[in-house]
Amino acid sequence: MRKIINNEWFIVVISFIIALILRSILCNYFVLPFITFFPAIAIASLFCSWKKSSFLFFSLCCLSFYLGDAAIALISFIFSGLVVLLCGHIANHATNAQRKSNVFHRNILDAVIRLSNRYNQSMDEIMDAAVAKVAALTQSEIGYISFVNPDETIVTVRRWSKPALEQCKMNNPDLYFDFDIKTTGMLGEPLRQRKPFIVNNYKKSSYKKGLPEGHVPLNRYIGVPIFYEGKIVCIGGAANKVAPYDEDDVRHLTILLTEMWQLIRRKQEKEELDKLIQETTKDLSDSENKFRVLFEDSPDAYLIMDTQRAVILDCNKSAEILLGGNKSDIVGKDVVVFSPEFQPDGRPTTEAAVEKIQECYDRGGNRFEWMHKKLNGDNFWCHVTVSLANIYDKEVFLVGWRDISHIKKYQSDLKKSNNELTEFAYVASHDLKAPLRAVSNLSNWIAQDVKKGLDVSKYVDLMKNRITRMDLLIEGLLEYSRIGRTEKETEILDMNKIPCSLCTCREDYGDRLVFDSLPLIKANKIRMHQVFHNLVYNAFKHHPDPANAKVHVSCEETPNEYVFCVADNGAGIDPKYHKKIFDLFQTINTKDSVESTGIGLTLVKKIVEEEFKGKIWLASKLGVGSKFYFTFSKYNN
User: Fold this and answer.
1) With contact defined as beta carbons under 8 Å apart, do 405 and 383 qualify?
2) Torsion, CA 517, CA 521, CA 526, CA 531, rounded to 10
3) CA 532 to chain centre
4) What is the sign of the dihedral through the CA atoms of 382, 385, 388 and 394?
5) Cα–Cα distance between 72 and 450 in angstroms, integer?
6) Cβ-based neighbour number of residue 280 at 10 Å
7) DSSP letters of 523-559?
8) What DSSP designation does 131 have?
């Protein structure tokens, strides 16, 4: 169906045939029904490119001049064109931030998973894959990976992306070389500044110190340091992206390079472990001693488990850290104790554990994902490897745990983003049609009254009102999509000044807006102002007697959070609407009785939950006013 709609000739021909039929039936006296096809074509043009849309309207305009009165056709053309522009604005901007976030999560999750799957490959293959991803994720021509020595004085470049090597014109270039941090130029800035470094205009940069003859020309550069135990261990960078580098590129590189470093570190530990085990097989005693050293110092959590009773016999330091306790809290307990009662698929943990243990016997080992539980009761996802081994002169299970909660979080965030996009598209397509239908109807009325010589100014005013509402809806949707997606600067706010600023903006509030002594908190000023503005403004706007409206702002402090309250003496809200009013585009009164987009409280809810790490709720009954409560977590400070 979409392919048919995309064919502009099909739409023009069908419109022409329908118009001819109407013209024939109505004997040239009534061509206005044809005009109603303009909004329909406008909606359909959302599926077409702008070139096709322009072609459609040019064709339909000429056809309208032929079939009907020129003035009516021109008016309908103008207002229908306006509808298309509004629809295009919605399609191109309202969901842009949602899609960008969706693509970001999908790309980085795919890169991290693909890199993690290379655990069994060589170091060179892992670094080749990582440097290729550095260039791909940042959409750059050049990518490189370097390592920093323990005292952070020398940077050693270990890998260049393939396009960088192809473009290099240097004679016999040294692909692996060291930079002294004291003398090197721009490549050393991430280490010197100890933070991500971006240059989007190389020619004008004060950090450049020139390039060797034949070196690939540079126009932009980004370098990101990776920290481990307080020291910079690795620096990854890219250059010559078409667009400027930004914070998304920094996040991409940070996540990818951190995963690469952890993978290399684990692989080095594993290779060292394997090497030492092979070298010490002749002497069982020495082998056990060296195994104990590697077992204890491994960055991954390892446990030794009895094969008969599934009791933990020993664990290393990483296992203690992962579970949040001491060895005495872990050894001697059944491994099932460190799992929730049920696994995420709904199966009882004891039943699923018996199955996994049996698989270990049948295969000599096993690999699987499992939901474990820390000593404090917090659950976490874990990648489990189980091997049969001879330790302490007996056959035991050597169990390795690797926390994969961050990967599961990326998967969950991606699923949430997809669900939000689906819900957003459904709601937006429904509520944004209302102003479009109004514009369509008003254009028909104007056409009819112009033909009769009547005054159409009232319709024009109504149309302006609907267009303004559409603009507010679009702006509200854009703001809604930005919340939680971008970093916001925070500062110490005197909350007593927030209501004062509202009084300044709305001088008619006067003494009708009162507030108690409010605390000092660290938050983003704009977001906090948005929350209070929407709650206070709604209280006055929806009051049945605005002249006698009273709004009271107060705050209570608890050990973990601040609880703010915005109370009014209005008509109150029926409890059955207490959840509905926080949904997108939902209002209790009709939008015509009280001008409203239905987005304000949705914005407030999203800011409170995603940026304040709190919650919001309503306490109200009909006839007794309303109290909006929201919390601000002290951990934000």
Assistant:
1) no
2) -60
3) 25
4) negative
5) 7
6) 16
7) E-HHHHHHHHHHHHHHHHHT-SSGGG--EEEEEEE-S
8) H
Map tokens 């049996």 to a residue.
358
Tell me what pLDDT residue 565 has: 94
**170: DSSP letter:** -
For residue 14, what pLDDT is reported? 58
Q: Count CB neighbours of 233 within 10 A.
A: 18
User: Token pair for residue 99?
Assistant: 């899609």
First to last CA, the chain: 54
- Identify the pLDDT of residue 584: 64
Residue 35 has what pLDDT? 46
Can you tell me which residue has the tokens 């340091």?
225
Q: How far apart are CA 253 and CA 134, in angstroms?
A: 6
Per the structure block, which two tokens stand in for 299? 């960055």
Which pLDDT score, from 0 to 100, does residue 287 have?
A: 57
Minimal CA–CA distance to 134: which of 158, 155, 114, 161?
161
Residue type, 139: Q
Q: Could you tell me how many helices (H) and strands (E) the chain has, helices first?
A: 21, 18
Residues in the chain where the model's pLDDT stays below 70: 1-105, 107, 111, 170-176, 210, 212, 279-293, 392, 420-438, 465-466, 468-488, 499-510, 584-598, 636-637
Q: DSSP secondary-structure letter at 377? A: S
For the chain, the 3-state helix, strand and coil shares in percent, each to the nearest 5, are 55, 20, 30
Q: Which residues pair with 226 in a beta bridge?
A: 234
Which amino acid, residue 263? L
Would you state the pLDDT for residue 232?
92
Q: Are 35 and 78 in contact (CB under 8 A)?
A: no
Phi, psi values for residue 543, rounded to 5°? -75, 135
> How far is residue 467 from each of residues 53, 75, 436, 550, 588, measured CA to CA in Å?
21, 16, 9, 33, 22
- Is 84 buried (19+), middle (13-18) or exposed (0-12) by CB count in 10 A? buried
Q: List the structure tokens of 229.
A: 């135990």
CA pair distance 157, 145, nearest whole angstrom: 6
The set of residues, in sequence order, having a beta carbon less than 8 Å from that of 124 and lying 6+ positions away, is none
Q: Is the CB of residue 4 less than 8 Å from the CB of residue 30?
A: no
Vertex 300: Cα angle to 294 and 304 (nearest 5): 70
Q: Where are the alpha helices (DSSP H) in 364-456?
A: 405-431, 433-452
CA distance 521 to 35: 58
pLDDT digits (tens, 9 = 90+) for 294-307: 777 788 888 888 88
